[in-house]
Amino acid sequence: MSTLAQERVADTTQRGVVGALARLEAARLLRSPALWVGVVLTVAFSVASMQFPEDWSGARYTVSPGLVGPLVICASFAVASSFHRERVGLAADAPVGEATRTLGRLTGAVVLIGVAAVLTAVGAMLVRTYGGLDLGDEPGRTLHAQFTAPEILQPVCLTALAVGVGAAAGRRFQHRASAMLALFIGWFPFVGFSWAFQSALVTPFSVVQVQPVSVEVGPVSADPLTFPADWLLSAPGEFQDHWARLFVSARLAAGHDLWLIGLALLFVALALPRGARTWPTVIGGLLAVTGVVCQYLVIP
Amino acid sequence: MSATTQAALPTARSMAWTPVAVTATGLVAVAALSRATDRGTPLALSLTVGALAALAVLALRDPAAALLAAVPLSAWRRRGLRLAWIAVAVLPVWLVVTALLPAAGLGTAFPALLALSTCALAVAVWVPDGKDPGRAAALPLLWVAAGSTVGSFGGPVGDVSLLWREHPWPLLAVAGVLLAAGSSR
Amino acid sequence: MTETAPVRTALTVEATGLVKRYGRTAAVDGIDLAVGPGVLGLLGPNGAGKTTLLRMLSTVLAPDSGSLRLLGRDPGVPQERVEVRRRLGYLPQNPRLYPSFTPLELVDYVAVLKEHTDVAWRRRECTRVLESVGMGDRMHHRIRTLSGGMQQRVALAAALLGSPELLLLDEPATGLDPEQRLELRSLLATSAQRGTVVLSTHNTGEVAALCHRVAVMREGRVWFLGTPAELIATAEGRVWESEDPDPTALRTWMTAAGTYRHIGAPPAGADLVAATLDDGYLLVSAGHQ
């Protein structure tokens, strides 16, 4: 057999191995109790958020991105468990290298992104059926706010980040329990504090992006009728002493999705063996920086 | 010098300090973020309580436990040494976090930390033979997560999820009894 | 270290009706065992209950029922258990160690936990046991840098601390090369002169070379207890060799020479051969004596 033919056979074999590993991992992840705990909690919180009366106009719209939190955290737990198995020296003598095995595990973890996509699609359809959500205060208010496509994609990108973070934690922490603890402490504030990133200055660095972004446009004494009619407004009240514009932007959400994908790739690079880290690091870094820059360009 | 005293330093060396360092850094960062934004104190405090309680349980993990299982110095004393070390390590973290956070809620936080830690330790000592007691570290984390998410819903579920914060002393008493009962295991 | 008056007894281990269950499974199911000085080998297939029995004998695991006396004391009584622990050495199966310690630090730590508080004595004893297992030249290396066999020897050194009267070893030869196995045999023979060694193993060669008595376990019970010669005798006249396999035999397998060895009734054209300890063990562990 010629060298070229041998390389082709090796290439086909590697692809076959990645596919076989991916199927095994996907099946294992789908059986993971952590995943289904996340799914159940996300669904339960989503249902609960629709049952309770809104504390303020736009509460449901604002809360919605964070509802995927349990799924994201639990998905990263499941992936961390999967990648922690890589630390066991099983089949260390096999011709399939660590990079191939990691690729197989990552490909298998795509099933989690699929689960998130299905849940998100169902949620988006329900919001559409519901006729949209309330957003803003009079005179700048709508009762039919719909999530833009990039906003709808956010849970999917978040799950991709969860896969990357889980992979890195599972592969790099010596003890599984330590990995879980680090993941919990890492995720919990970003999901729980998501509203802390609502101010324009820090919103590009948020993990769970909560739109609308609030931009101060006038003092309490300002006449809201002088603001452009197409602005959504937030009136002065208990939590703010000014009129603010509620800025909802598909481009901002798209930039944020890019940032999330970039971050996911950077974490994936951490899970890979040294020799295979360069490209995910470069591409992830570029995407993350581009995502942040795009968001700053969009925010008024 | 007694055997327990002589065992103190090597016990400290045998413990895994990386998770403690990572957790401490994370908690201080969250507290600093909370202070900077002037929001989220209850959440930061809950996270601190849960994470430190989890660290207490993780401190019980001893890779060489099987080799040391039949030594005359009891498992309880060896665990006591580990807990003493982890207490020494997390105390500065606790002080820094509570100094960063506004005073609201701090009064009940320490009893809550004691209660959650004791609960988790009680579960750890009752973990069946052959299972990893470190799994009990999930208890405080899940409990604070439940308190932060469903606590406001009210009802029995909401009440139970906030038990560690609202009624730490009775919880501490019950967990203490369970812990004492399991100490000879 | 608190000393109490030694209880003189010829038997180191006296177990009657010992039972340990995990859920519905009886890992040890009514074992009667009386062990005196010398080396007792525990043979049996995986899951036979050897490790569970050793853990009970090492006071790590309390039996669900039955009575157990070790070194003349009842390990069910906390104070007596501590006293027993002061006099026994235990090497668990596949022990894990602290990677950041050196062998000397680890063995010294174990010595402290065995309540040896005299620093000078400890230093001498730790050096002695490490040298006795052939780790004298590596006692200052980090454990993470040692091979699996070396780590096993470090754990064995920890079990040998203080020349215990009762030494319990769960598969101690794991990871050791043939030369180290020979050294282990010599070490255990020396230990057996001072007290009792109970050795769980899959290696019948070790049992033949070292053990004064052998117990064959299966399904949580002791099916045979006697000398290695008696175990061999159970298979005498029942081991055959032929050119063809015999599916009706109790056990049949191909030898390196390409012939088939059978245990049981003689197949047609087979030659009777001398039984070995392996044959005796295979016969007993298959439930036929």
TrEMBL record, chain A:
It comes from the Bacteria. This is ABC transporter permease. The chain crosses the membrane at residues 33-52, 64-83, 103-127, 152-170, 177-197, 253-272, 279-299. Keywords: Membrane, Transmembrane, Transmembrane helix.
Automatic annotation (TrEMBL), chain B:
The chain crosses the membrane at residues 46-71, 83-103, 109-127, 136-155. Keywords: Membrane, Transmembrane, Transmembrane helix. It comes from the Bacteria. This is Uncharacterized protein. It comes from Nocardioides bigeumensis.
UniProtKB/TrEMBL annotation, chain C:
The keyword Nucleotide-binding applies. The keyword Transmembrane does not apply. Residues 13-244 form the ABC transporter domain. Keywords: ATP-binding, Nucleotide-binding, Transport. GO terms for molecular function: ATP binding. Belongs to the ABC transporter superfamily. This is ABC transporter ATP-binding protein. It comes from Nocardioides bigeumensis.
